[in-house]
Design brief:
2 domains, 6 helices, 39% helix
């Protein structure tokens, strides 16, 4: 990972976890993050760290100096800028592609945005190839069911989600590690679940965790679909 920068400007987000091999759209409107993006676009390979906020207020101002006080999670993902669109309303719309994961070693700048010294780490298999294949297949089956249930819960009655399912799964990687990250980004679950999946160090553990999360979330979605199809009638006094 010698081509990865060891000092990164950090883009802190309240509700987005960026996984390797996946892309997210970002709308940049805060002056400090516009400054961050300008700095990155001047680099040969524009990139910054994307990290979920763990807690605390985002910024504090002392006179004209703005300091980031939000506490980020220690694990984040290097995001490479692959699309830039400067809008007439003075916002910047980006598409950022997740690359390597990193751990924050030290914050070296706290304003107007965080800059941190980071250490990158690879995903480890954590199990034999046949075990990973079985886990991935189980997760794949549950993931397809998850999308169908999600479509049924949110879409029109005449939409079974088949078009969404086909479009999404055409993009699904076959490599177990890449697939586990793809699935982590796909599952509709709490941000804390996604962050836990991101920081998991082995593919086997991540897939196993995703199987459990999918089973839980699918039950919740199934109940929502049943309620939508058969709403309870109000009681008459």
């Amino acid at each position: 990972m010698n081509d990865q920068p060891t000092e990164l400007p950090l883009f802190l987000l309240k509700s987005v976890v960026l996984f390797p091999h996946t892309a997210v759209p970002l709308r940049v409107f805060e002056p400090r993050y516009k400054q961050l993006v300008s700095r990155c676009l001047a680099m040969p390979t524009p990139a910054f760290g994307v990290v979920l906020i763990k807690g605390g207020p985002e910024v504090e101002s002392d006179s004209s100096v703005e300091t980031v006080t939000a506490v980020p999670h220690r694990i984040g993902t290097l995001g490479r800028i692959v699309e830039v669109d400067q809008r007439d309303d003075d916002t910047i719309h980006l598409v950022v592609l997740g690359s390597a994961r990193f751990q924050i070693e030290e914050v070296v700048q706290s304003g107007p945005y965080l800059v941190a010294r980071v250490a990158y780490f690879d995903d480890r298999p954590g199990a034999k190839a046949e075990v990973l294949s079985d886990l991935a297949e189980t997760a794949r089956t549950l993931g397809k069911r998850h999308l169908r249930l999600l479509a049924a819960a949110l879409s029109r009655d005449d939409d079974d989600g088949s078009h969404l399912l086909e479009r999404v799964w055409k993009q699904a990687p076959t490599d177990p590690s890449a697939f586990s990250f793809f699935l982590g980004a796909l599952i509709q679950t709490a941000h804390s679940d996604r962050q836990r999946l991101l920081r998991t160090e082995t593919t086997a553990d991540r897939l196993q965790d995703e199987v459990g999360v999918l089973r839980r979330e699918n039950e919740i979605l199934r109940a929502s679909v049943r309620h939508r199809q058969h709403p309870s009638k109000p009681r008459l006094n």
